[in-house]
Amino acid sequence: MGKVLVTGAAGFIGSHLALELLKRGDRVVGLDNLNDYYDVNLKRARLARLQDHPDFSFVRLDLQDRSGMEALFQREGFDGVVNLAAQAGVRHSLENPMSYVESNMVGFAHILEGCRHTGVRHLVFASSSSVYGANETMPFSVHQNVDHPLSLYAASKKANELMAHTYAHLFRLPVTGLRFFTVYGPWGRPDMALFLFTRAILEGKPIQVFNHGRMRRDFTYVDDIVTGVMRVLDRVPTPDPQWTGQKPDPASSSAPYRLYNIGNNQPVELLEYIAALEDALGMTAQKSFLPMQPGDVPATWADVDDLIRDVDFCPRTPIRAGIGRFVAWYREYHKV
After folding, report:
1. pLDDT tier at 298 (50, 70, 90 boundaries)?
2. What is the dihedral of CA 136, 218, 298, 36, to 10 degrees?
3. Residue range 211-231: average pLDDT?
4. Beta bridge partners of 216
5. What pTM value is reported for the model?
């Protein structure tokens, strides 16, 4: 791709992606605001893995900074952009809704404007499985309607998809949205279940098991996700000649626009996930069973047929192998 902007480069997926892009020979500019939504030291440690590479440069900048974003795009002349920066977390959106509007919507508008005015060849942006909201048809398909989000986080991601399509239509900006399902692995986020469970079990504290353990998630290992993102970045979308406004397909368009699910296509019940973690730790968890939380959904399951067809996406990491690698990283990083 040449020179790639990765926003959220100090984040979980962003740092892994930046590293792999550098390994294959791309020049990478990593952007992050290093906010304190979770441990900034973890974010800095992720960046430290990148900063010795001669083709990596880091910019501390907030997506909401309009003039700063304009200057960045004009100065760097990116070939590709992968937007992974966002205010994350379904539950946090109940407590601090405006941060989602400012980061996920206003910030994304600045990304779109930067791409439009500097001739970026392809924008890939992170959407989320949470956009499926009240939809109960499994597996979730990008060809289904997603007009009933259950959290502001989900609504902000749906808004990103609509905003991106508008720019693809009006300005012929090639854009691809990726609906991420539950991603896990080394260097993961401390607010995610695997991190929280591991810390609690090692400290001898009970873990919170929502929906009494009957949650099902399409857990996908981070290396598999990164491979998929890179293949999508290299596949610049073109208008779909079969698309028609009489039977509009949400996943494509008469504009250079595509949507894909990116997940494992093999949902795992939460109790099975916990059992794999217990085996990797050699410890048994104390479980506190709780009801479903507001804004949550009982299950996610990705139909990834389109991604398999278009970029040969194929997750290869079994759940127990991925959890084992996370536990090994966690013990080393925290010296446990």
Report:
1. confident
2. -120
3. 93
4. 269, 299
5. 0.94
Kind and range of the H or E run holding 93: helix 92-95
Question: Which two structure tokens, joined as six digits, stand for 331?
Answer: 């013990």
- Strands 3-7 vs 80-83: parallel, antiparallel or unpaired: parallel
**Residue 182 CA, distance from chain mean position:** 8
- Annotated catalytic residue within 153, 257, 273, 330: 153
Catalytic (active site) residue 153: yes
Contact 61, 31 (CB under 8 A): yes
Please name which of 221, 202, 223 lies closest in space to residue 320, comparing C-alpha atoms: 221
Q: What is the DSSP string of 29-46?
A: EEEE---SSS-HHHHHHH
Q: Cβ–Cβ contacts within 10 Å for residue 332, how many?
A: 10
Q: What is the pLDDT of residues 130-151, one digit of tens each?
A: 999 999 898 999 999 999 998 8
Tell me the backbone φ, ψ of residue 86, rounded to 5 degrees.
-170, 160
Structure tokens, 230: 């890179």
Q: Are 160 and 177 in contact (CB under 8 A)?
A: yes
Burial annotation 12-39 (CB, 10 A radius, 16+ → b, else e)? bbbbbbbbebbeeebbbbbbbbeeebbe
- Relative to beta strand 27-32, strand 3-7 is parallel
For the cut 80, the answer to whether the pLDDT of residue 252 exceeds it is: yes
- Cβ contacts of 41 within 8 Å, gap of 6 or more: none
| CA 288 and chain centroid, separation | 28
